[in-house]
Amino acid sequence: MGGGGGLVLWLTISPAFLFLVVVATLTLPALVESACGSNAVVFNFGDSNSDTGGLMAGLGYQIFPPEGRLFFHRSTGRLCDGRLILDFLCESLHMSYLSPYLESVGSDFRNGANFAIAGSTALPPDIPFSLHIQVNQFLRFKARSLELIAQGSKGLINEEGFHKALYAIDIGQNDLSAAFGANLPYDQVIERIPSVISEIKTAVKTLYSSGGKSFWIHNTGPLGCLPQKLSLPRKDSSSLDRYGCLVPFNNAAKEFNAQLNILCDELRSELNDATIVYTDIFTIKYDIIANHATYGFENPLMACCGYGGPPYNFNQNITCGNAACPVCPEGSKYVNWDGVHYAEAANAIVASKILTTEYSKPKVKFGFFCTA
């Protein structure tokens, strides 16, 4: 996986921060009881938080440097300066990074596929690339794989591989963001949540009916701590919490997460032979914001790649990738990369905390689905 190549990029920063990032990165495999290696199969569904190039492949959307400037040293379609949380989780299993399902050239689907697309939502269900569409793409992927295996093709995931695979879902942030973006009153934003949760339920049950038994579901992060949201006009600071985050946005995320947690409990009861793991991404990310100095960060609410300067360095009209948009030096101590997505340094810490199992229910290792 080339983990050693990323270390040089952090040598310009403070020893304390270097230690935290190196430890978070290098100890990921150690936090998993046993690695799957070539046996691991993971299928991922979601939005830009876990999109490894699907938007670029699916729509021909051009994503240029400085995206990917760190670990990959090129744009890979990830909206990040380097690796995503999903990438670190794959590293922990010593498996390859997930190829986007829609990438027609150079993909390797022996360890699964990534159906996540930046901008995706749960609602409405029938437009590209909603969660419903992503699940339908998976069903096509499975049917075609098994069809080709029956014809003698090699190197594809077989029926057993699909059965033993991990099905990961991380979606909902864009649904909340769209509701707030439509200037809906807070109560109406909350009223939309059950419909989003229902789509996630349908997705899990569809995948279960197709043979999936292992599910890893992330809740949504602190929406009100994103520079994109914080830069929106407001009358005063009364809506900010003690760490500078927007309370209404975070409260909506908390309500979404509470309902998602209840859904996971219900699914465990209903799908007796399935393992449904609910992982609290909100708490992990909010802790990084609240205690940023402990983790070696100095700018928890500012975008590294953005325009406008303090306090948020975000301008909706001049976003990361725009020729007029400056970017912070490599090794800068930012939590946020572009106003919406987290920087690789923060993603490494999030992943390391996920792998402790302390933020998951039930508290099982990420590699629980692996076979010896």
UniProtKB/TrEMBL annotation:
Identify the InterPro entries for this entry: GDSL (IPR001087), SGNH_hydro_sf (IPR036514), SGNH_plant_lipase-like (IPR035669)
One Pfam family recorded for the sequence: Lipase_GDSL
Signal is among the record's keywords? yes
**Name assigned to this protein:** GDSL esterase/lipase LIP-4-like
Signal sequence bounds: 1-34
What GO molecular function terms would the record report? hydrolase activity, acting on ester bonds
**Corresponding gene?**
LOC103722665
Top-rank taxon, per record: Eukaryota
Keyword vocabulary terms for this entry: Glycoprotein, Hydrolase, Signal
Similarity comment text for this entry = Belongs to the 'GDSL' lipolytic enzyme family.
